[in-house]
Amino acid sequence: QVQLVESGGGLVQAGASLRLSCAASGRTFSSYAMGWFRQAPGKERGFVAAIKSSGSSTYYADSVKGRFTISRDNAKNTVYLQMNSLKPEDTAVYYCAGQRSAIPVAPATSTWYAYWGQGTQVTVSS
Length: 126
Description:
A hairpin with a 6-residue loop joins strand 4 (34-39) and strand 5. 0% of the residues lie in helices and 45% in strands. The protein contains no helices and eleven strands. Strands 2, 4, 5, 6, 9, 10 and 11 form a seven-stranded mixed beta sheet that branches. Strands 1-3-8-7 form a four-stranded antiparallel beta sheet, with no helix packed on it. It is mostly beta strands.
């Protein structure tokens, strides 16, 4: 079983940056593809980014491409989401998720992820 704990959310102004972290328990973290999703009030949970277990490949939603960067440190059992040039429409609860696969299967599809964190709130004011 893998437990995921997100941190790093907060309230920022448009144009600012934040870095989210997701700490994972368990010795198998380095075997799992990881992803970030977000859910705004009244909207469905949507894909943000994903990363292969080795970190060698990354995947992004079009809405964040060029502004967000996903990375991981397998020695620290942690995956990160660096968010730059934040916009009010980025406001959401951000969730970290893990797949039981080294290569993400359908990285944008939440149902392929077996493990989820509790979420961290990101609020971007205009």
